Amino acid sequence: MPIFEYICEECHHQFEALVYGKQKTECPKCHATKLQPQLSVFAVPAKSSTSSARPAGPCGSCGDPRGPGACSLDN
Question: Which pLDDT score, from 0 to 100, does residue 72 have?
Answer without folding.
Answer: 64
